[in-house]
Predict the 3D structure of the following.
Amino acid sequence: MFEKYFHLKANGTTMRTEILAGITTFLTMAYILAVNPNILAATGMDKGALFTATAVASIVGTLAMSLLAKLPFAQAPGMGMNAFFAFTVCLGMGYSWQFALTAILVEGLIFLVLNFFNLRAAIVDAIPATLKSAISAGIGLFIAFIGLQSAGIVVKNDATMVSLGHITSGTALLALIGLIITSVLLIKKVKGGLLLGIIATAIIGIPMGITKFTGFMDIPPSPAPLFFKFDFAQIFTWDMLIVVFTFLFVDVFDTVGTLIGVCSKAHMLDEKGQIPNVKKAFYSDAIGTISGAVFGTSAVTTYVESASGVSEGGRTGMTSLITAGCFALALLFAPLFLSIPGAATAPILILVGLMMLDPIKEIDLTDFSEAIPAFMCIIAMPLTYSIAEGIALGLLAYVLLNVISGKFKKVSVAMYILAVLFILNYIFIQ
């Protein structure tokens, strides 16, 4: 059955290889089951329901990628997207988590429309490659900053805005221990290093009185507190438009960048450098995002950790089918994942932030018409505590600097339109 559907032999793989690849992918990204609830719970959302929503959205998105696109890629609520959801939209802009979930739902529906008319690729093409790289790097710094804060390594200071926390005790010490352990695991290239780092840190936190395990296995927490909790009253407001656009913008580039990177690594790109079944992959992304919104979590995206399964030989949708099955089994271990403290997941945020800096290598720092807008985008995200502001300032800098410098042809029509929208936002909204 699997051979007939996934064409294992034709893709140079076997059932055993695909199973091992699927398990490997799960182990490298299972940390999201602990990290995502910890991040989104800052908005007041029910942590137990968040765990269930995270697992279900990952299952639905990954199954869609398996059965529809037949690609060895897994999906889950995206790092960076969850940070924007919690710390920008809810805690920064002051909107309810119901408002943010509504924006996620609208984004997913827009994805379906854009994909139907093949407009998603056109949107991606309109944005300069430099800014695409800068967005990833900026989100990386933002996520790392959140990790340092949640651990208490970086704390608020009225004189200097931020300063070093008390790193010799409490959560900060545990987080630093976890950072060292997880870093060593990554250096040694241990499979599932991020997940193992979380587990080891959480165990060390028991005698420190920080980790308090409440159980190992149980029936999954009810999704009811978050299920279909939308706020349609503000759906036609300017703020909703801005939030939806930002979710859309970040998700598009995150998914496309990951798909290209992993396909390239697996030598799966065709002779034109195109991703196989890319349209179906985009549909899978949209399906995952919509399901995530319905159950109560931030936008779902393709995970770069899928590269780990590909490295193990995964080449077909059977890999992602196995990964989805692993997420389904993980639902039974909710007490275990929910007992993990923020100090144990903070090192993961810091290290994932590092990994997201990789595209910065693609930025030409000798061309200041490219480098300055990129730098504005990158530095603004952590310092304004907003992914949206980073994107806006980077985009505005790109358009203004290139126009004033006489490099009109570098700026697309779409970029001009986006720049005008952001300027209007600063004038009339903020």
Q: What stands out?
A: The chain has a mean pLDDT of 85. The CA atoms of residues 215 and 335 lie 5 Å apart.
